[in-house]
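Appendix B. Chain record.
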Amino acid sequence: NEASKVGMTRFDIERHKGIAEISINLNPVFRGQGLAEKLLSESIGFFASAGTGIQLINATIRESNEASTKIFTSTGFTEVSRAEGFVHYSMRMN
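Structure tokens predicted for this chain:
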């Protein structure tokens, strides 16, 4: 059942650089319910506990995507640059 799938988080890992690029996609049925921030936060926690050796997680978000900007900044990401309509964020892993 499509309505039972809340969303997914993907980590594209560049192990030799110690970085990962994160992306999140929430099922439209569940948008606007405050679940994206929880999904993002718990995914990062799970990823951090997996012992990947990754030290930096990056995210690229469209400037116009205010909802994603709010979710990523409230989860601890900081803006590092802007270019061609996109904002680049990073989060250092402890």
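Further analysis of this model is presented in Appendix C.
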